[in-house]
Amino acid sequence: MADRYRVRRVFLAGDAARIHSQEPSTMHTYDVTVTTSASPDIVWKLLVDAASWPLWSKVDSLDTTRSVDLDPGGDDGVGAVRAFRTGRTVTGERLTEKVERRLLGYEDAFNSSMHNYHARIELKPTAGSGTVIHWYGEYETSWLLRWVMPRYLQKFMQGMAEGLARYAEECRPAQ
């Protein structure tokens, strides 16, 4: 009898794992746009330099031990993995697209809360020598996070874009 119980228990645990792995994920998006008086050159230099992100964003630090192929000169290229710590969480983003002063694309390299994450940051010059920053992405979460993550990430990314715009304005060279 004890053997049958153990077999049944293992079967149920296996069933739960199978069901969990097949659980439908939910695709979400965020989309923020911010305009800054800083030039696209200044904004671009901040975006491609992972070491600058803690200065202007909501991330606490760049985790260089988990990052890969960072450019020592601050011009990270496609394929670089940038690991950022926010609180106790470290997330990794792999650069996938780079069009100088216009587009930076990335995907999740490791992220416990999201999967199939793809994001793009597009820069467009304004008539007055400023920059429109358009930051958007899509991602999947578990069904447990589907109610919390969309609002949280929209607000978080709005703060990221606003921080970038504000810091870029402060970095403008004196005229």
UniProtKB/TrEMBL annotation:
Signal sequence interval, chain numbering: none
Protein name (database record): SRPBCC family protein
Source species taxonomy: Bacteria, Bacillati, Actinomycetota, Actinomycetes, Kitasatosporales
